[in-house]
Amino acid sequence: MEYLSKQRYDEIAAELKHLINEVYPKVKDDLAEARSQGDLSENAGYQPYPFPAEGPGAFTRNQPCA
Length: 66
Prior knowledge:
This protein is mainly α. It has a domain at 6-37. Helices cover 47% and strands 0% of the residues. The chain contains one helix and no strands. The protein has one helix at 6-36. It is elongated and about 45 Å long. It starts with 5 loop residues before the first helix and ends in a 30-residue tail after the last helix.
């Protein structure tokens, strides 16, 4: 079992707050705009959001979820 330091907890909490308050609303608005233009699969303007390869927000296939 691994334990989180207070510093790491604060980093994770700040990242979650950023995602909830800034990133997700932007994604939601962009998807609403794409939907208003028709089916997403046929919409040339629709671009899926890439996940960062490293740094805050980066996830790997083998990263534990707990």
